[in-house]
Amino acid sequence: MPRRLPMGDGGATRVRVETDMTVSPSWLAALRIYPLAIAGTDAIWEAAHLPLYTLWQTGTVGEKLFAVAHCTVGDVLIALASLILALTLVGHRDWPARRFAAVVALTLVFGFGYTVFSEWLNIVVRRSWAYSSLMPVVSGFGFSIGVSPLLQWIIVPILAFSMVRYAGSRQAGLPQSHPDKNGTHKNGVVGCGPTR
Predict the structure, then answer these.
(1) Cis, peptide link before residue 25, omega less than 30° from 0
(2) Which helix (H) or strand (E) is 138 found in, with range?
(3) In sequence order, what are the residues at sequence separation of 6 or more whose Cβ sits closer than 8 angstroms to the Cβ of residue 74?
(4) Is the pLDDT of residue 191 over 70?
(5) Distance CA 162, CA 165 (A)
(6) What is the dihedral angle through the alpha carbons of 90, 92, 95, 97, rounded to the nearest 10 degrees?
(7) 136 vs 142, 144, 158, 194, CA distance in Å?
(8) Which of 14, 86, 144, 194 has a C-alpha 20 to 30 A away from that of 104?
(9) C-alpha radius of gyration, the chain, whole number
(10) What share of the chain has pLDDT > 70, as a percent?
């Protein structure tokens, strides 16, 4: 709620309006943890699923290392863009304490949607990369998409958001249990509960 405070310049009629623009300190922690968690888990995933692409058989060691690094950096940027868009649309100034689930869900939708588009663009249109015979695929809309990149954009962000939530609850001194349906922990503190 804005407060009107006198300017202190001898009774002038001007008034300074002060607003409460404070943001939960866990925002900063979350925005530090999330991309680092994405980068770490994504680099492992990229290296692990490389045999599912033809590059594994045809590329040099340098090309494979470049592909893992390039894809990891790209995925971090996609993850951050998805998170920022989700925060803009459904976030709360006290996120991740409030509207955590809504932001997570929308971030997953954006990341997953971009992955479908990117795989289509790079497999079908540009032919920038190709799947090996080891890649399980699902077909739809006239093309096949690899299961591994789809799972990657569900599992990796969920792991990263779990790290954000864990760090946020540790920072707030909350118990490491899930809140009840009202978002309240056993000690009565409102935590990362349902959207409000």
Answers:
(1) no
(2) strand 137-140
(3) none
(4) no
(5) 5
(6) -110
(7) 16, 9, 22, 35
(8) 144
(9) 22
(10) 73
